Amino acid sequence: MKIVDIAAEDIRFPTSRTLAGSDAMHTDPDYSAAYAVVRCEGTSPPSGHGLAFTIGRGNEIVVRAIESLRALVVGRDTEELFADMGAFARTLTHDSQLRWIGPEKGAIHMATAAVVNAVWDLMAKVRGLPLWRLLVAMPPEEIVRLIDFRYLSDALTPAEALALLRDRMPDRAARERILADGGIPAYITSAGWIGYDDATVRRLCREALAAGFTRFKMKVGADAPEQDAARAHLLREEIGAERVLMMDANQRWDVGEAIDRMRPLAAFDPWWIEEPTSPDDVLGHAAIARAIAPIRVATGEMVQNRVVFKQLFQARAIDVAQIDACRLGGVNEVVAVLLLAAKFGVPVCPHAGGVGLCEYVQHLAAFDLIAVAPRLEERWVEFADHLHEHFVQPIAVERGAYRLPEAPGYGVEMRAASRREHTFPSGSVWATA
Ligand SMILES: [Mg+2]
């Protein structure tokens, strides 16, 4: 089957109207997708769907970057690509001219993620498997071949990656049964958006408790420290002392400020502080982690590639790795980071606060928990509860856990009507704004 086109679409949801998704740095996000559709020749062939998540303005730049990648994919034979997905991903990240506007970071890398993930979606649909099953079915040697080890081999060699994957083989079936029975454990973010008033947060906490959630995340980094403490007090009142409470500063603080701001919040027993400072500041994270232990330090949703993750692990700068399905350059680079995290013993708790991210990361988490992670405990996937109705196969969350997805593909195919209505700026949702 030949690939005949990649369509790039600018899709935006007006979430800033309700402050859903708001945090200390991103006060008015419009959850958006730079959306790629890979089309093949023939009568009614499957199409591959991938997206990169943005929060509004600038989505058009990632859309243009997808268009710039088109020539590297159109005309290729799908079975040839599927036979060596590692080589395919490298044709995008190693393009001799496009790499200058990265390399492997920023808008071009997010566009790479959309395209790489769209081809993975296509492959999974052609094979009739959900993405996680496609990955689990690959022999360890093939998984290792997905990874670009350039810049990694001082921390993880192909032989070590292979050994890690082989070590897990005896546990795989038992782990899959555990996930099939209990689901992929999740935590909820959507009760704690910073723009919500106290009454709304209380109501959402109660709803989440009733739905079976036991782990909650709140936003911190308000202008005044007392505001963070008051919000944390409110959360603890609602969820009690036993349940897990995470905090997320969304990069608001300098290094010293993060340490100072977290000291009084320790009274509320936070499980982790997420994004205390710039995602590029490896040594800053290490300093914060040393100063505020035993509070864990987490980051990853804006860690731009495997190289920065490698340094975060090498410097013992983070206690939790929050991989993002479309900030990293798609499935291949995520697999690299999962294996790095396993080697360094850092649990992976995927980021999913954004449109389509829950749909994506459930597959990555299932693969990690079955085939990579050294153990299952303390590995939770983020859950945010809005915009799922726009997907052809929305996530199913029960009793605070994702049900294992079984539909073929990578999960982010959006309904045609939703895409039409939310196309920016011509769609009906925006035309009437
Ligand atoms: Mg976050």
Would you mind describing this structure in some detail?
- Helix 5 packs parallel to helix 15 and helix 8 packs antiparallel against helix 15.
- It is globular and about 60 Å long.
- The strands form 3 sheets. The protein has a 5-stranded parallel β-sheet with strand order 5-6-7-8-9, covered by helices on one side.
- It starts with a strand and ends with a helix.
- It is of the alpha/beta class and 433 residues long.
- The chain has helices spanning 59-69, 78-83, 85-93, 106-127, 131-137, 140-145, 158-168, 172-182, 198-210, 225-239, 255-265, 282-292, 306-314, 331-344, 357-372, 416-422, 428-431; strands at 3-12, 32-40, 48-54, 184-188, 215-219, 244-248, 272-274, 296-299, 320-321, 381-383, 397-398, 401-402.
- Bound molecules: magnesium ion (MG).
